[in-house]
Every structure is written in C-alpha cells, then in structure tokens.
Amino acid sequence: MDSLPIRWQESLPGSGNAVTSVLVNQDGVYVGSNGYIYLLDPSTGTITASNGLSGYGNHEVRLATPPSTSLLLIGISGWVLGLDPDSLRTRWAKGLPNCGHEVVSLIATSDTVFAGSNGYVYRLDLASGTLQATNPLPGYGNHETRVAISSSLATLFVGINGHAIGLDPSDLNILWNNDLSGSGNGITSVIAHNNAAYVGYHGRVYRLDEAKGDLLNRNDLSGRGDGEVRFAVDETGAYLYVGTNGYGACLQSDDLDITYSVSLPGSGFSITDVVDGNEVAYFANNGFVFEIDLKGKVVKSSSLPGLGRHEVRLGVNADTLLAVGINGHCVGLGL
Q1: Residues in the chain with pLDDT values less than 70
Q2: I need a surface site. Which of 54, 123, 212, 321 has the fewest CB within 10 A?
Q3: First CA to last CA across the chain, in angstroms?
Q4: What is the pLDDT, as a whole number, of residue 46?
Q5: pLDDT on residue 275
Q6: Which among 145, 187, 144 has a CA at the least distance from the CA of 167?
Q7: β-bridge mates for residue 191, sequence order
Q8: What is the C-alpha to C-alpha distance for residues 27 and 25, in angstroms, rounded to an integer?
Q9: Residue 31: beta bridge partners?
C-alpha cells in the first residue's frame, strides 16, 4: 500500500486540541477549530488570514459557502456569521433564537443561508444575515439538527434525532416527515442528490423521495455497528460513499446496493468522515486517512504521524490536495 504524501502541516494557533473542520475551494483552505477561523495557502499551508471570532467562545466551528464562494459562512455556538472569504473579516453576525450554545449546521444557495441547531431551522438572507423565517420543529426535541437542500431548490431536508423532514425553503413550512421506521434517537445526517434525500442514522442509510418523503430504498449496513453516518456523492452521481463506525462503504446511488464495504485498519470503530475524489473516495477516522478505489481496494493511506488518534475531517480540491483537519492541526496531503 502506498502512502498519501504529506505536503505540509500547520499547527493552528489558539485551537488547542479541538475538533477541526475543513473546507477547500478555489480560494484556499478554510479551517475552523475551537472558535477560530483560518485561511491557508493550499500550496504551502501558510496561514494567510485568521479570525478569532471574539465573543463567540471556544466551540466547534462548521463551515459553508454559497455557490459563488462570495462569503465564508460560520456556524458556532448558536450563531451564524458571514466572513469576507479573503480577509476573514466579519461582515455580519446573527444569533439564532433558542439555540443556546449548540452546534450549528449550515448550507447556502445563491442568496439564502439555511441553518439548523438545537431542534430549530432558520432561513437567513445571505447578504445581510437578516433572519427571514424560523421553524422550531415542534415535537422533535432539542437535538443536533442537520440540513441539506435539493438540487432543484424545492425542498430543504432536515435530519434530527432519527427523523427526516422536508421543508419548503421559502417559508420553512413542513412538507413531509418520515420517522425512518421508528429507528430511535441520535445524530441524523442528510445529503441531497438526484431528486432524493439520503439519510444516515445509527449505521443505516435511507433513500427518500424528494417531494413526498416516501421511503424508496434502505440499507442497514448489517454488521457495521450503529455509529454516526457521513456521506459524499461521487462526481458522476452513480455512487454514494458512506463513512460509519470505522467502515468505508460505497453504495449504488439509485438503489443503495453495496459496491464495497471496507473495515478501515486502525479505525477503532469511530466517527468516519468521507469526501469524493477522482474515481476514488477518501475516508478518515481515528487519526488515519485512506484512499479507496471503486473495487474497494485501499490504494493509499496516511497515519498522520504525531497527531494522535482523534476525529479527522476532510476537504478536497479536485486532483491536487486533500486537506485534513485533526486535533487543532491542518495537514495537506498530495493526491
């Protein structure tokens, strides 16, 4: 097995040993950790800008951008912030009512930001951060709330505590809900693709109709445990990559049949992140990163020496760079 070569490694000032989120686009490598935001040069890993987000506390940071990449969006501790993507200066900040200091998930269209936190969903104006609509999702409890939007922009998908909900993006009214066959409670991931919502929960994967929320397909990934599920879709749209509980899996996107499932060496049955590459997928967990081809072969890997056995988050830029966030560090791996 070949190694994924380390191009650079950067310790992030002020980040401590916290969970480290990564977003990569044509403007650079954005990293968020422990209430800090950084912009890194993708070639060298040099920090070119930073923002300590003063007043928002040392909490988990989540990142998003609109399609134009004209703004860097930050979700942290019950707040959404819009930052200049070059200088990282704060353009606007909005506290989300009733969120407390909970984690905030984000997604954006060309003019709108959708945020989920603590059992609430919010619609904000992209340019100003003005709050335009709120849905408290009555009856679903105060739990982590994840969001995705359909390619048609007709449905906002929400994953919360073992449930999937479809909202009207214009006013956040509920269009449908699906209790996922009474699967129970826990973190529920959602991703949109090809007129469907893919929902991951307790090691299971569901494919739902975009318009009505009806169950189209289900795969329980038998024998892979009941951990958190994370998703990526390959560039052709044919495959759904699934990371869960120390396993990397590839499913057919149209029926959820398994193409491969791999137990990741050294994984320790922990949270497993995944991003799409060029006819490969990159999976990461417990301080390891793996490149797996469409035959299910682990082609390359990295143990990220010296950075410990912690949660790993990934961002990828075409065929050139895999950015790895771990324990207050960012590592650039060559592809």
Answers
A1: 182-183
A2: 54
A3: 14
A4: 98
A5: 98
A6: 145
A7: 198
A8: 5
A9: 22, 38
Residue 98 gets which letter from DSSP?
Answer: T
Q: Do residues 221 and 203 touch, judged by C-beta distance below 8 A?
A: yes
Q: What is the per-residue pLDDT for 183?
A: 64
Q: How many CA atoms lie within 13 A of 286 on its CB side?
A: 14
Read off the pLDDT of residues 209-232 as tens digits, 9 standing for 90 and up.
Answer: 999 999 999 999 999 988 999 999
Q: Which two tokens stand for residue 246?
A: 């120390």
Measure the CA–CA gap between 22 and 115, rounded to whole angstroms.
Answer: 18
Reported CATH class of domain 31-39+46-271: mainly beta
Q: Which pTM was predicted?
A: 0.96
Label residues 100-127 b or e (16+ Cβ within 10 Å = b): eebbbbbbbeeebbbbbbbbbbbbbebe
Output the pLDDT for position 331.
Answer: 99
Residues 6+ positions from 319 with CB-CB distance below 8 Å? 277, 278, 335
Domain ranges of the chain: 31-39+46-271
Cα dihedral 114, 54, 43, 307, rounded to 10, equals: -100
Identify the three-state secondary structure at position 77: coil
